[in-house]
């Protein structure tokens, strides 16, 4: 078992950085081409919902990448000595839309570093807070939770089905093909080099998954847009949490229910197992 020096890792709390990017026509067109009819309607001059996750990606040189394809550890984020990492969940507060042509500054702060023990061994959660600001002011506030996990034995990923949080039949359901093209396009838009999205032998033999892994932000983007459609407008608060990996090569469903001004949603794999849950309110 890898020992975690939490005093050292928690010394990263409070670190900040700022990055800038623009909402360009090319990015908007690529995003729309990737998600198609799954996007909620917005004004012609507004960016699609969840496009902010494609802004200002990290661009490390190839010789600065770790073995998983991510930037090597120990820069802005703490050097957690656990080999597997992925998005665990988060929360978005939408204050105003991003618009085509906006210059956007994202301020990032390491807010917390916590160790836990899971079913498969040691876990470390790193929480980062983001603010997206345009010339009109802050548009989005976000909490992002990243989980680091111990190495897995090949083929030992849990096959336990996670139950859907929805009660009764969903109000809206959208079927999505988890193709390698979808994964490639999203990785390209976000400059995401994590190998388990495109390198099948690595995903199965090294990280122990049964196939390529669908990005957490793809699922969260679909749920965010379904919430906006269901609620008749952009949710003020949107929360999401990954509960099980979504594996590519299947048709999965994005389902949701509304109760007044509240939304509950889930992504369900081909076995009807929940992979990501979400909630939102206007």
Number of domains: 1
CATH class categorisation: Alpha Beta
Strand order of the largest sheet: 1-3-4-5-2-7-10-9-8-6
CATH superfamily: Hotdog Thioesterase
**Helicity level:** 10-25%
Low-pLDDT segments: none
The appropriate CATH architecture is Roll
Quaternary assembly = single chain
Q: Total number of helical segments?
A: 5
Spatial extent as radius of gyration: 18 Å
Largest sheet: 10 strands, antiparallel
Number of strands: 10
> Under CATH, the topology is which?
Thiol Ester Dehydrase, Chain A
Write the layout of secondary structure elements.
Layout (H helix, E strand, L loop, with lengths): L5 H5 L5 E7 L2 H11 L48 E11 L8 E16 L2 E14 L2 E13 L22 E6 L2 H11 L9 H7 L9 H16 L5 E6 L8 E9 L2 E7 L5 E8 L1
Antiparallel strand pairs: 1-3, 2-5, 2-7, 3-4, 4-5, 6-8, 7-10, 8-9, 9-10
Helix pairs in contact: 2-3
Model description:
Helix 2 runs antiparallel to helix 3. The protein has one domain (6-281): Hotdog Thioesterase (Thiol Ester Dehydrase, Chain A, Roll). The protein is 18% helix and 34% strand. It has five helices and ten strands; from the N terminus they run αβαβββββαααββββ. Strands 1-3-4-5-2-7-10-9-8-6 form a ten-stranded antiparallel sheet. It is an alpha+beta fold and 282 residues long.
Core attributes:
282 residues, ten-stranded antiparallel sheet, Thiol Ester Dehydrase, Chain A, alpha+beta, globular
Provide a quick synopsis of the model.
With 282 residues, the chain is α+β, with helices and mostly antiparallel strands. The chain has five helices and ten strands, in the order αβαβββββαααββββ.
């Amino acid at each position: 078992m890898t020992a975690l020096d939490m005093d050292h890792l928690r010394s990263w709390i409070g670190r900040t950085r700022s990055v800038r990017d623009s909402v360009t026509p090319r990015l908007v067109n690529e995003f729309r081409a990737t998600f198609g009819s799954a996007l909620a309607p917005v004004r012609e001059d507004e960016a699609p919902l969840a496009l902010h996750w494609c802004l200002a990606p990290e661009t490390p040189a190839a010789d600065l990448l770790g073995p998983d394809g991510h930037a090597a550890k120990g820069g802005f984020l703490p050097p957690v000595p656990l080999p597997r990492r992925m998005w665990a969940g988060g929360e978005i507060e939408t204050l105003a839309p991003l618009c085509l042509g906006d210059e956007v500054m994202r301020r990032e702060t390491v807010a917390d570093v916590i160790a836990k023990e899971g079913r498969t061994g040691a876990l470390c959660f790193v929480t980062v807070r983001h603010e997206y600001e345009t010339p009109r002011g802050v548009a989005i506030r976000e909490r992002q939770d990243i989980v680091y996990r111990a190495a897995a034995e090949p083929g030992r990923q849990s096959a336990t089905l996670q139950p859907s949080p929805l009660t009764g039949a969903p109000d809206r359901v959208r079927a999505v093909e988890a193709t390698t093209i979808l994964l490639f396009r999203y990785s390209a838009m976000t400059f995401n080099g994590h190998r388990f999205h495109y390198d099948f032998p690595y995903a199965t033999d090294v990280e122990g998954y049964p196939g390529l892994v669908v990005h957490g932000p793809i699922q969260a983007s679909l749920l965010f847009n379904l919430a906006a459609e269901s609620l008749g407008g952009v949710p003020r608060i949107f929360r999401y949490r990954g509960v099980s990996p979504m594996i590519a090569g299947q048709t999965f469903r994005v389902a949701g229910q509304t109760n007044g001004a509240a939304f509950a949603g889930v992504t369900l794999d081909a076995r009807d197992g929940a992979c990501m849950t979400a909630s939102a309110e206007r």
